[in-house]
Amino acid sequence: MGNLEIVFKKAVENDIPELTEVMTRAFDDDTRRFRGNPAGGGPPGYNTGDFLRKWMGPGICYRITKGDKVVGGFIVFINKDGNNILGSIWVDPQYQNLGIGTEAIHFIEKTYPDTGKWSLGTP
To answer: What is the pTM of this model?
Structure first.
């Protein structure tokens, strides 16, 4: 992925603890910066792994790695009618503003080219 050296790989159950740590840092950082609260702001279960356990089955979860470190993730929902959903995307605050989210969107578009329309399930 260019000079970012990031890799997108489908996540598995064993990835949930590390993805949850990154997700927690990302959502808590957002809520501190934009809402003035010390934590929270993520979807229910974002900080316990319950969110990922619930949505990895019906959706496809990817982990984003840079080197050997997980720096983010996302979940997509691919529907038979071609109207797909980006359910959630998160990047560790230490790795934000480096183009990782943009690369993730390019990866999603390239991986699912038959999508007629994308909807966002994430703010």
So the answer is: 0.91
